[in-house]
Design a protein that fits this description.
1069 residues; alpha/beta; cell membrane; transmembrane helix; SLC12_C; Solute carrier family 12 member 5
Amino acid sequence: MQGEVNQLFEGDEPPTSSSSAEGQAATAAGTETVLVLKGDSNPKESSPFINSSDAATEKTQQYDRKNMALFEEEMDTSPMVSSLLSSLANYSNLPQGSKEHEEAENNEAESSRATADVLKGPVLGTLMGVYMPCIQNIFGVILFLRMTWLVGIGGVIGTFIIVFMCCTTVSVVHSSGGSYYMISRSLGPEFGGAVGICFYLGTTYAGAMYILGAIELLLIYIAPKAALLNNMRVYGTILLTSMATVVFVGVKYVNKLALVFLACVILSILAVYAGVIKTAMDPPVFPVCVLGNRTLVWKSFDVCAKTIETANGTVTTQLWQMFCDSPFLNATCDKYFVANNVTEIQGIPGVTSGILADNLFGNYYEKGDLIARDKMESVEDQDEPLTNANRYVLADITSFFTLLVGIYFPSVTGIMAGSNRSGDLRDAQKSIPIGTIAAITTTSTVYMSSVVLFGACIEGVVLRDKFGEGVHGNLVIGTLAWPSPWVIVIGSFFSTCGAGLQSLTGAPRLMQAIAKDGIVPALRIFGHGKANGEPTWSLLLTACICESGILIASLDSVAPILSMFFLMCYMFVNLACALQTLLRTPNWRPRFKFYHWTLSFLGMSLCLTLMFLCSWYYAIVAMVIAGSIYKYIEFAGAEKEWGDGIRGLSLSAARYALMRLEEGPPHTKNWRPQLLVLVSTDAEQNVEQPRLLSLTNQLKAGKGLTIVGTALGGTFLDNYEQAQRAEQALRKLMETEKVKGFCQVTVSSNLRDATSHLLQASGLGGLKHNAVLVSWPRNWKQGDEHQHWRNFIELVRETTVANLALLVPKNIAAFPSNGERFTEGHIDVWWIVHDGGMLMLLPFLLRQHKVWRKCKMRIFTVAQMDDNSIQMKKDLTTFLYHLRIDAVVEVVEMHDSDISAYTYEKTLVMEQRSQMLKQINLTKNEREREVQLIHDNTTPASPATPATPLTPGEGAQSPGEQVQMTWTEKCDGEPAKPPGAATPEGIKDIFNMKPNQFNVRRMHTALRLNEVIVKKSSEAKLVLLNMPGPPRNRTGDENYMEFLEVLTEGLNRVLLVRGGGREVITIYS
């Protein structure tokens, strides 16, 4: 190292040769020069950062006369803005359904160029691209099949609250990209993948719900005679297969049919409003037959009467025969039938009838309850069992408010239809918020007005009759429509089929986008498809999941399932918007000027509330599914850096926590070792002590701060690539050893300074290391390793000054790896001096790891001649009891004894060796200087010549003074001996020297302690021992290393510990 220092200063000496020699010396020293080339008057720079090739010359000429010469050197990495404006203006954010974007994500440049000419640019505007698709998806099966029933069960007020709450929940969800894309890029790949899959499942089950609705329309209202055993499952499977085939053949057919389906939806809604207007002037004939107050199933009779008068007298009707055992007037009939009259009421009295007052409040039923008209009289015996139950309209399910919420909510889940098509929009940033909010406003108005109009036009028992059994099996909303019920029946059938096709088209593309992002390794197969990009495998998976929903065979049971998944998706969309706003993310600039983060927070709260209102157990299941996917992606998913909001949240939280840490030092209860692990690397930048990181993992168990650092000698510019390789090696080893933390590589002119820089500069603010872990220097006794142990001792001194704890494992190669297990054994603590409790805390931390878990702890302390060893043991046992540390206590008595001849001799040999090293352990450069000095001392100085000019200082000095000035001090600060000290006479004096008495006493202590420790702990798995401090006088550094070597001799694994000057363990929890 001394030679390196000399070489470093040699570069600063004045030139002593000609210009050519000057150039050679500069080249040898690695300095940069400025060359002036003759032929033109412009100086050219020769620098490693400037490409001097012809291409670079052309590039320089390219920017001539543009006043850009100042930036020419950085044009490769920082091109001119003018060259980027066109590409920035044409940048499009295509999250889903865009083949170009997917190919760009997968770096398929050639395929992207091949298809660029074929694919058309986005051409859809706000009306056709966002508004109409949202209208088609929002108006669907629930409006036509369940809206009247919801009003009848929940009442006008209750249903209006449900509609308002659901519409408010989704009204704040408008994004500038597909929902999956927005969530994943805002909340990170873990949240994005989990919620994206939930959104995919919701879309898939929505397809199942639409198919079940279509089959319900077909079998109940269009072709009721086509019913089979398990008809919903059989016909549903057939329809699903047909739809999947259409989607597989080509999505273009779905797009062509979309306008037809949309026209059916609009015509159906207009027909309903026309029918409502018509009821004010001419209510339709829509009779309902009621026995007492019970609604009858109008299916097997034609006249709503018990008897009718004919020319031949009184004749019984088909209704009589349903409740009596014969058609004769003297027949035995049902008691309730006999006691009550049959009444025919008007099912749709009209909007001016005042029926709204009767339908304001809800009527909730248990499964099997009779659908009764409240204001009609009924004579019945409450103790009599219900007979002929199949003749009456009964409740098919148990109804309650939260069930209604779960059934209705899927009708507003179509708001993402526009944002999912952002790749096809001409101006997505403008169209999506305007189109989505317009669609939400329109549909909310339609739904809310429908609630009021249905309650004002239709009789309550008809509203509560889900399948129209009391009105000849007709669709209630169809009978209300004008000009014909078939407008609603046929229109709703095609609209549900169209919505099902849209779900089967969109869900596979969503799954393909998730698979192609690569965040869920198990789903990568679903990223493949046909040559034109159609997601074949994803379509197959979607069809299988959709089939599971069809097998449930109940629209009312499927609706809450998809409500959970959609609500979770919307909740996280709102969370993403609120989070980006609160974090003030620079790239979050919503174009919608009325947006405020409180709206998103309100929407998120409503979504969470609705999830548990709909079905608390479905909500828990959905959260468990999302949580499991999140942890799976976190554990096995591909690493993606999307600049997500969670990372921004982490940065904000970290900044806040760091500022809090600056307020003061942590309490002793919160103290834990925050380690700076110093490792060394070989020539290939591989870590030389990998077991040091194994010990780090065992000490930390993934908790607290860990910084793994290494030091490199040289200049940063010359060693940048070397530093990068070293950092990669550290990261790889940390990953292998499962050490969670940071790595840092510092480059300085020498290793000593680099290590000191690491010690001083690591950490940030209050989050700094409080302990240093460094390995014992190997082979320190070898002559060429003297600088290593000197650096080690300086490190010990620096940690002491900085009040940092120091952990020094000796024989680190013998320490266990993370895969080993000790089934028995002891961890022995030799507590000789108080260090703030570090020796107590470290074994406790080690025993938390599975490697050391079965090892028992023993604590030894040393008693002197005047100590009461029995009382010491009691006090130590009590102290450990209060610390709640389970350990065996033993007090070792060390009586005063005379210094043995062996100790005296060992000290003498140590000092002789140290003195000899000071004289003969010279580097090659120092020896050359010594020879030059002897030559200069015996040769008169030559006069100055032009070739060898002397500086003024040199000319003023005598040869003797030159010798004194040139003979430098060694790096340890000790004045160098004159050359004569290395003569045979000087060596003879070494062997006649007497040992220092202070060193003799220190050697005596080390030998005595080592003897006791080896006797008690030779079989221990690990020995923890107080580490003595280095001498204040640097002349005894070699002796200090020898003392430590003697202290730990004969022990397999030793951890030397120095405290950081503060208490680190307390009896308080």
